[in-house]
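Q: I have 439 residues here and want to know how they pack in 3D. Can you give me a structure?
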Amino acid sequence: MPLLHHLFFITIYCGLALIAVLFGPSYIPDLQTGGAMLLGLWIFLAGVVLHEIITRRTNDEDTTAKLETIHHNQAVLRDRISWTRREIKGMAEAFEAAGQSSKLSEEQNIINDALSEVNLLKTLMPRLTDPFLGLFDDEEISRFEGPEKPEKPEKREASRQKHHVVRSDFLDDFRNERSMRAGQKTEATKEQVSVLSDLSETEVLSIVRRSLRDDRIDMFLQPVVALPQRKRKFYECFSRLRTSNGQVIEPGQYVAIATRAGLITAIDNMLLFRCVQIIRKIIRSGEDVSFFVNLSSHTLKDQDFFDDFVDFVRGNIEIAPHLIIEVAQDEFLNLKASELLSLERLMGHGCRLSLDRMRTLDMDLKALAAGRVRFLKLEGWLFSEDSGKTKKFLNDLRSLPIELVVEKIETEDALVQVLDQDVAYGQGYLFGEPRPAKP
């Protein structure tokens, strides 16, 4: 309790005691001078006791608050140490890979890539270790999350080798195309993924938190092809959250729940980091392919992270041409000027912007082009609503630097309808389903 408060309390009960001694006999006829002094003494002692009680209670509350703060800071520090260990492990692996390389320039590239990714991870750490997200709260193990058991090194190595054999890489798409052109036959190995369903909101939220905490956010890639050749030109990145048992839940199951819980930004951040790793792999392989990465409005409004990411892209400019930021049409139209400026800065370094989840063809295409929008993604049903409006939309689009991608093409009949509109790119299960990507 501050000194001023102590003086205030002392003044009150001393003043009351003095008033009782001096003026008590005047207002209470039966009260003599000795009785007035006893009354004043009683008031003084009662004031002292009350003052002591209030002081002790205030001190106890202050002590409790300090202990809670210490416990909170200890938990945050422990979590950040855990993430730092992961960073150090990643750096050690990068340096080990560089040590095995035969060329000095190749070593330097590996080291620089690892260091830049570590710097990007540093911007994610404060968000992923924020205790208010509840990622590190103790939870009951759900029926989908088995207890984690330590593996022996030999068993882990055998598992890694088996995993490497079974799991196909999205780069196999390009290898297969080259092999087909060379007249060779190849067989792609597909990994079977078990998708969980019929989950309660509590179960989904538990899986989201544990997946973020234990770094079990996997990236799946779906091809976007050039029409009519069906040649793969881009990939769209999707996140899947994996349980400790290897099963996954899809965005449709967790996006709304994660958004309400304040976790969607952390998921977007990790997906963006995974995409950067894949882009580095693409650059080393020499393939010309770019990636659509969906970002929610919550991530676009996270000014601190976006500023850090813009700085990261500026320092790794070779990544920019391969990165296409994708935003929902409704969310893009509701962005503030500061958020649009952040996107503008990113586009200024060579990234591209795509709008998806289009709900109408009535839009100012020239304004979108001036805002550096380079792709529009929509579903084929929009073309069937009004043929005159569709024709005008496609004619206006041809004179602008905006490419059109039609999504959710799942049958040959649907493809024929799209080809009739002279669309440049298509996406859907007809051309390939989302497949796991290995960073």
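Q: Anything worth noting?
A: DSSP finds 15 helices and ten strands in the chain. The mean pLDDT is 76.
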